[in-house]
Design brief:
Strand order of the largest sheet: 2-3-1-4-5
Bound molecules: BIS(adenosine)-5'-tetraphosphate
Radius of gyration: 16 Å
Order of helices and strands: EHEHHHEHEHHHEH
Distance between the termini: 11 Å
Structural class: alpha/beta
Length: 192
């Protein structure tokens, strides 16, 4: 199995690239952001909880997020592998993921981080906010908070996997195809 962590700040193109990677590699795409938005759209207790945090650009608490991710993985064991998009976003999430992989006799093959500068991120997210209907994309202050949260709480996850020699950076500015090609080069190295 190939299990990939697609990593990067909000708006770096994780969701955009994950959709293309799924098509090429036939892996299951798990986006914790999408899972939360689905729950929010259905007004479930989990969705209402997530909304409190997402609308402010904060992370949803680890215990909620880890439980949801585990349920999704356990319900889909018969796949070629996973593309994890937006998870893990904290060190406790990374530790929980490694533990889950151990329990399943699996491992994370590698983490690929999309690198995009802050001003480009803000521009992309405000632009997406014009059409996405996402409250967290409409307000520049919330967007900048998401970027700060990424730098403080999520960026250390790169180093966590770096210590296992599994982290690779990819320039996330350019055309979607150019970035996709670079990601595929890295991922082909994982599966070799
Ligand atoms: P997510 O749903 O994960 O979303 P994201 O980080 O905003 O976006 P992504 O990087 O996928 O960007 P995209 O491809 O769409 O998170 C939302 C919230 O959910 C978090 O803030 C948090 O509250 C919560 N959450 C999720 N996971 C969590 C976790 N594990 N723990 C706790 N909380 C969690 O691209 C963005 C835009 O850029 C698009 O409009 C796209 O068209 C454009 N774009 C993409 N590539 C481009 C390129 N090469 N050039 C120009 N534009 C490009």
């Amino acid at each position: 199995m190939v299990n990939i962590v697609l990593f990067g700040p909000p708006g770096s193109g994780k969701g955009t690239q994950a959709a293309k990677l799924v098509e090429k590699y036939g892996l299951l795409h798990i986006s914790t952001g999408d899972l939360f938005r689905y729950e929010m759209g259905n007004d479930t207790p989990l969705g209402l909880k997530a909304k409190e945090y997402m609308s402010k650009g904060q992370l949803v608490p680890d215990e909620v997020t880890i439980g949801m991710l585990k349920n999704k993985v356990m319900a889909n064991l018969d796949v070629k592998g996973y593309i994890l998009d937006g998870f893990p976003r904290t060190i406790p999430q990374a530790e929980a993921l490694d533990q889950l992989m151990d329990e399943l006799g699996q491992k994370i093959s590698g983490l690929v981080a999309l690198e995009v500068d802050n001003e480009e991120l803000v521009k992309r997210l405000l632009n997406r906010g014009l059409t996405s209907g996402r409250a967290d994309d409409k307000d520049e202050e919330i967007i900048r908070n998401r970027i700060n949260v990424y730098n403080e709480e999520t960026a250390p996850v790169f180093d966590y996997y770096e210590k296992q020699n599994k982290s690779t950076k990819v320039e996330g500015v350019g055309t979607i195809e150019e970035i996709f090609d670079k990601l595929c080069d890295v991922i082909d190295g994982f599966s070799a």
